[in-house]
Amino acid sequence: MIASSEELAENNRRYLERVELYRELGYDVDEERSFVIEKALPVSGRILEAGTGKGYFSLTLARAGFSFTTCDISAGEQRYARMNLAYYGLDAQVSFEVADLEQLPCKDGSYDVIFAVNLLHHLASLEPAVKEMMRVLSGEGKIILADFNEKGMAVLDKLHAQDGRVHEVGEATIGAAGDFLKQHGFFISIHPGAHQDVLVALRKPGRPFHLS
Prior knowledge:
7 strands, alpha/beta
């Protein structure tokens, strides 16, 4: 057992408090995560979530009925995510992997759909992570990237300021990711949302897993 019932309840209480704090700042977590799935549909086959974090999107995917693998470099963050899912009885749908997104422990073409939600702005460099997602994507699979837009970043800045922290943001953006994927044989569509934008990238048939 990953945690006691008391730990699961306390973790869920903190999760709900955080969700409510987001909502008070104008950001509806459930609505934003559902928007990502809506733009990603249809979704089928082997699914990877890149960047588990505390499991906000993991929970949305599981509630939507999907079974999937989720990876994160932080075992600590994944424990929170696992507890979030276990509280709602959904953890059996998810395989948790502690892994570096730039060096995933799986073969070429292992996944048909890859989600990375609110991950890009954490990256020090865009290309290594996106290249690795391209490598593990199947021949005609799709990559779904979602990240905060300007309005969403403003909410995050307020949230971190309330915590007495500064929200660190890297240089990777949805636009830059779209340009890179387009250059390497993907059809790109970008869907602006209230607080985050969603990019859907479809691999063109016959494109290689590896980059030259």
